[in-house]
Batch of 2 targets.
Target 1
Amino acid sequence: MAARKKVLVARRIFSDIVGRLAEHFDVEEPLDDTPLPQAELIRRLQGKAGLFATGTELIDATLLAACPELRAVCLMTVGYNNVDLAACSARDVRVTNAPEVLTETTADFGFGLMLAAARRITEAEHYLRAGRWGQWSIDLLAGADVHGATLGILGMGRIGQAIAKRGALGFGMQVIYHNRSRLAPELETPLGAQWVSKDELLRGADHLILVVPYSAQAHHLIGASELALMKPTATLTNIARGGVVDDAALAEALAAGRLAAAGLDVFEGEPALNPALLALSNVVLTPHIASASLPTRRAMCNLAVDNLIALLGGGEPLTGLN
Ligand code: 8YV
């Protein structure tokens, strides 16, 4: 009998899902949630044919050169900006991600973060918990309306479309979006979604949500000059990736009242945060949890496992990237 292939699981995941992998492979998994330093990741990958990866392991040419037996990198995330796809293809390493399974859950969260920012929900809770609620007043924690407002979406992939659906059909919002390519009319029409230029999007949105994948071109897509185009009453929600927004410029705009509020699930250099953001009351901050419902996190893991089983068994993956 041929020796079983070896797989490394980069981060702690659900034990029963590791059990699924262990039916097929010799599996090594970490004992706790501490991310593996790069040298340790490379050390543990020696002799491994497969890697179960998340959004935090850096899979670059140096790692690939040091791990010649690696054949499959299967991500449980939809974003894959931590993987050098060209370098993987050059070394015949197959890569998969986890689209679709997290779309609705992530859209729910993005919409919720936008609502929380617009209606000042977390700010109101902090106010109350701090014992500051002495009396009612006419504009106490009064925010912006979401229903009937203009929803701007930057990046109109699956998650962007799922957010548009919530806004248009659930909240009667006008949807404007910017994306490299325009949606087909059969997708645009039911949502009344209108493609606009990036500047028109920034100027027109009452609530702007960012759902673009991160790449070098997307770095600081929203910086000081973009923020200056937005309405001072608008909100900005980022569930894409840290680095798409210049966090320092955003903190400045929020502090100066040039933007009403923001909802941020992702940050430049996370899990570290720009301290200027922490000092503001008009920003809702969450620790990169947009896809974190239990059923969805399980579905993401299961898809990565299905891809490893398919690829290392000599078959085609379900959601291949190269
Ligand atoms: C992950 C995500 O939870 O799928 C993605 O691209 O951003 C999230 O769903 C995150 O990347 C974990 O590392």
Note: Residues 17 and 302 are 7 Å apart (CA to CA).
Target 2
Amino acid sequence: MIYTITLNPTIDRLLYLEEVLTKEKNNRLESVAYDLGGKGHHGSYAMSKLEVENQALGFCGTTNKRQLEKILEQKNINHDLVDVYGKPTRESYVIVEKGVSGSILITERGYEVSSYDKSLLVDKIEEKVKPEDTVLIAGSMPPGFEIKDLEQLITLLNKIGCFIACDLSGEALKAAVKAGVNFIKPNRFEILELANHGQSLLDTVKELTKTIDYVIVSQGGSGSLCGHGNEFYQISPPTIVVKNDTGAGDCFVGSFLASLTQKKSFVDSLTFATACSASKVQHIDSTSFSVKDAQNLQKKVIVEKV
Ligand code: ATP
Ligand code: MG
């Protein structure tokens, strides 16, 4: 079983404007849509789409709980969330202008979690997670959830003995590496937190692979530099027309972990995840991808041993 943990979930409210956003004018909406914004939820979406059993854990504000659950249900995501009473799950406003590529993103900070909320999450993890399971911790941490709480969470997972995957950034990423995890996928900016001054990217990956089973540095359209044991690869996706690259990394992580769980090899898991995320960037929203397109794209992924 794979569990994803989204500590700071988000409901994306996509505001499609009739025209270009203009100051001092009433900007009319053409339509509104809702989507998941949390990275763990994005990972769960990819796994569910690939029909790999998983459950989304994490926090959820009670005042708009139905709204978040409705999106999770529509997207077929099995979930068991800890209620944060009397508070709403944060929203992100994604403004999409007519005929303009890219979007404007405005994000709320999110509710503060209490010691009680945190203890409920720990209880749930202790009750559910078994040594043979995989746990993905992804995304930012809400106010009130400190680095020491993350360290305690990883220590607990290490005690259980499950496979620990992290998609974190900044201090949280550093703390996770120190606490001991099995998988990380920093992007080209996030890896800078872990690199020693003057060290090449390959040397950084080699160094990290000494203590982390799977190290993948994603490089957007240029692919990824990946290490596992003594195997190192540069993976390049086929060239495609990009509609929206937000969520490409989350799709990569979800489909890679799904493949590993299905006992696919390292290289097969890498090429499939690369293909799924290449399909994802051709979709306008942050999660959608086509499994059939991914299977075709996988044949065009280039693998170079480095
Ligand atoms: P996010 O945090 O928004 O999910 P990220 O910054 O973590 O994204 P990226 O490095 O942008 O992740 O992308 C992850 C993977 O998705 C890349 O390694 C690559 O395989 C694939 N990908 C991203 N952008 C493109 C692109 N333009 N064309 C093809 N594949 C892409
Ligand atoms: Mg990312």
Note: The longest helix spans residues 266-280.
